[in-house]
Amino acid sequence: xxxxxxxxxxCGTSTGPRAYVCKNCNHIFSFxxxxxxxxxxxxxxxxxxxxxQSGDKIKVCGGPYYMHNGELIPMGYRGKFIVDKIDDxxxxxxxxxxxxxxxxxxxxxxxxxxxxxxxxTKHKIVKFKKRSEQPTVREYF
Length: 141
Known about the structure:
four-stranded antiparallel beta sheet; disordered C terminus; six-stranded antiparallel beta sheet; single chain; 39% strand; 12 strands; 1 helix; mainly beta
């Protein structure tokens, strides 16, 4: 087999390194997702958003949406943010990467705005915490 190719576990066919599906038997190959923060950060899902502090790193999805002819149009924020402040209606944060800029992440009660028709719903949030350093061999003795 040439360098860089992979073999299908079901039928043994040799395929290219970037193939998602085997061309012979339609077996779906699994790929490991790459994330540069995976080794240094740990995600926490069970927490209350009012306990966030300035400087915390969060990942956000969901939030307000608009319904037009039965089609849901998302109006909320998505991506990673750094918390600046907390107010009574949500989180004020700075975006990271392509989500750069200052945003207000809505976390208040769900309701529909009668003027615009936008449904204001809470965002879903995951907090990132730095992983503790692994102890060295010297610390065991």
